[in-house]
Amino acid sequence: MSVLEKNFDILEAADGKETIATLAAHEGNIAALLLDVVMPEADGFEVLEEMNRRGWIDEIPTIMMPFSSARRTMSAVPSCPI
């Protein structure tokens, strides 16, 4: 169990549409959102647009991270010592 899991319920979504559905199902009970930019179904920017339409943008602190694109980039770069 992680430190966060001791104090928070961690919710996960597989794609942008599932993220929106999860936010709707837990409306008013989301402390923060870690959002990938690159996701299937709806990307992180589309999720932000929907959050703005529904008024969640001011209620949920959101951190956008390019996890998927970073993984693709790192796998394409050969290992090089620094």
Give a quick set of tags describing it:
2 strands, mainly alpha, 82 residues
Textual characterization of the structure:
There is one protein chain. The longest helix is centred in the first third of the chain and has 10 residues, at 16-25. The protein is 43% helix and 10% strand. The protein has a two-stranded parallel sheet. 12% of the residues are buried. The chain contains four helices and two strands. It is mostly helical. The protein is globular.
Overall helicity: 40-55%
Q: What general form does the structure show?
A: globular
**Percent range for β-strand residues:** 5-15%
- H and E order: HHEHEH
Instruction: Give the N-to-C terminal Cα separation.
Output: 34 Å
User: Strand order across the biggest sheet?
Assistant: 1-2
Question: How many β-strand stretches?
Answer: 2
Mean pLDDT: 81
Poorly predicted sequence stretches spanning 5 or more consecutive residues: none
User: Structural class, from secondary structure content?
Assistant: mainly alpha
The DSSP helix count reads 4
- What is the makeup of the main sheet? 2 strands, parallel
